Amino acid sequence: MIEVKNVTKSFDDKTVLHDVSCTFETGKTNLIIGQSGSGKTVLIKSIVGLLHPEKGEILYDGRDVMQMTHDQVKELRKEIGMLFQGSALFDSETVLGNVMFPLMMFTDMSHEQQLERAHFCIDRVNLKGADAKYPSEISGGMQKRVAIARAIALNPRYLFCDEPNSGLDPKTSILIDELLSDITHEYNITTIINTHDMNSVLGIGENIVFINKGHREWVGNMKEIYRTENEALNDFVFATDLFQRVRQYVVSHEHPSPRD
Questions:
Q1: Using CA atoms, how far apart are residues 196 and 115, in angstroms rounded to an integer?
Q2: By three-state DSSP, how is residue 209 classified?
Q3: 147-172 in b/e burial notation, b at 16+ Cβ within 10 A?
Q4: Sequence-separated (6 or more) residues with CB below 8 Å from residue 29
Q5: Which segments of the chain does DSSP mark as H helices, in order?
Q6: How far is Cα 88 from Cα 140, in angstroms, rounded to an integer?
Q7: Domain boundaries, the chain
């Protein structure tokens, strides 16, 4: 579990995060959503220690990253997997070489152990047989799966994903969402996904944090979001006619809850 408590971050005289508090739960897909410029990227960078807020606490299972020394932060990052927006694969390395990279850099495994772990991760993301291919020889969706395999190679406790569906077609995006969800539950990872993809929000959003103008505006899940009365959230999530119709359908077919 990662807890963010009363975090404020400014650049010069502009406050980007205003006293933000939220909790990201272990074994669930935690999504951060919000418009461009809302502060969600600054929040992610603050959580992973790339930015240092002026005040607040950021707790990794009780460990405050803001109080850690440089060496302690380096140790913590060994527990973190990162999935970047553009996959960030090494073009000169094969699929196998890309997945083995963190194992060679950050472990004392023998070469045989590294190979075994890399093959396991490649198989887990359904890329068996693609070991010898280079990124230029595979599709964007396959590249993203290689990036996921690399991100889980060190068996992380925490997984951060920045726009994992960027540039992918809708069908492939759904497959990536399902893969991230499966891995999160299977390995009990605290997964945090920064996304603009409303299909992801409504499909795998077990814990959703909506950031609006630097404030934590709303927290809930993919079922609760249909019934929210938060105007800013509704304008963001249900901006298109299609999603408005989906929302109307879901709400009209829901059974009234005991508190209604």
A1: 35
A2: strand
A3: bbbbbbbbebbbbbbbbbbbebeeeb
A4: 180, 181, 184, 191, 193, 204, 205, 206, 207
A5: 40-47, 70-77, 95-106, 111-124, 140-151, 170-187, 198-204, 231-237, 241-253
A6: 12
A7: 2-79+157-253, 91-155
CA distance 260 to 256: 6
pLDDT at position 240 is: 52
Q: Is the dihedral of CA 45, 46, 49, 51 positive or negative?
A: positive
Tokens, residue 194: 């920064």
Banded model confidence at residue 259, pLDDT cuts 50, 70, 90: very low
DSSP-derived letter for residue 206 is S
Mean pLDDT of the chain: 87
pLDDT, tens only, 93-137: 999 999 999 899 888 899 999 999 999 999 988 888 899 999 999
* Cα dist from 97 to 93, 118, 146, 147, 237, whole Å: 5, 9, 10, 12, 39
Which tens digits make up the pLDDT trace of 17-46? Answer: 999 999 999 999 999 998 888 888 899 989
Residue 129: the pLDDT is 87
What pLDDT sits at residue 243?
54
User: Distances from the Cα of 36 to the Cαs of 6, 8, 53, 122, 171, in angstroms?
Assistant: 22, 18, 20, 33, 24
Topology annotation, domain 2-79+157-253: Rossmann fold (3.40.50)
pLDDT band at residue 4 using 50, 70 and 90 as cut-offs: very high
User: Helix (H, G, I), strand (E, B), or coil: what is residue 132?
Assistant: coil
In terms of Cα–Cα distance, which of 49, 59, 57, 138 is closest to 99? 138
For residues 41 and 9, give the distance between their C-alpha atoms in angstroms, rounded to a whole number.
12
CB contact at 8 A, 222 and 238: no
CB-based contact 2:59 (threshold 8 Å)? yes
CA angle 64–69–74, rounded 5-degree value: 90
